[in-house]
Design goal:
Helix content is about 60%, strand content about 15%. The protein contains 6 helices and 5 strands, in the order αββααβββααα. Helix 3 (about 60-75) crosses helix 5.
Length: about 160
């Protein structure tokens, strides 16, 4: 019975993940989020970010950030993504990225930038998170941990019986 249950959990796990090649490392990795899923997650979360922070209402600044971001993204391992760069209307000192090519810089962080090189370093760092598929890796680790807890619970129940 235990062997059958372990086989069942192994089938569930392998059926939930696929193997992709990480564009940065070139190594194969198991994932529960393919590129189309990344893009869909990013699109969904993008709307939430915009409603929470708001876009800084300066078309010239937005255009500058988009142009700089696009130049950097064109040099990345995932230059085929439709990249989106947004300045958020927030005093927070922060920059972050969402899966699928969404990169954000807050107005608060921009106040601390001394040069375009500083800004390019921040935006490039965020592009790196998307390019290396960090969100997909995190989602895979979370699902793996959840399956581990489920398997341990079932095995614990079997051991008691």
């Amino acid at each position: 019975m235990r062997t059958l249950l372990l086989c069942y959990f192994a089938l569930i796990f392998t059926g939930c993940a696929t193997t992709v090649t990480n564009p940065v490392t070139g190594q194969a990795e198991r994932t529960v989020m393919d590129e189309s899923s990344e893009i869909a997650e990013g699109q969904k979360a993008h709307q939430q970010v915009l409603s929470e922070y708001g876009v800084y209402p300066n078309a010239q600044l937005q255009g500058y950030i988009t142009e700089l971001g696009q130049r950097l993204a064109a040099q990345s391992h995932r230059n085929q993504l439709a990249w989106h760069f947004t300045v958020l209307d927030s005093p927070e000192i922060n920059a972050f990225a969402l899966p699928g090519g969404y990169v954000y810089v807050t107005l608060g962080l921009m106040a601390y930038m001394d040069s375009e090189a500083d800004l390019a370093g921040v935006i490039g760092h965020e592009i790196g998170h998307v390019t290396a598929r960090h969100s997909a890796q995190r989602a895979t680790r979370q699902q793996t941990a959840g399956l581990g807890v489920l398997a341990a619970t079932v095995l614990g129940m079997l051991a008691e019986s």
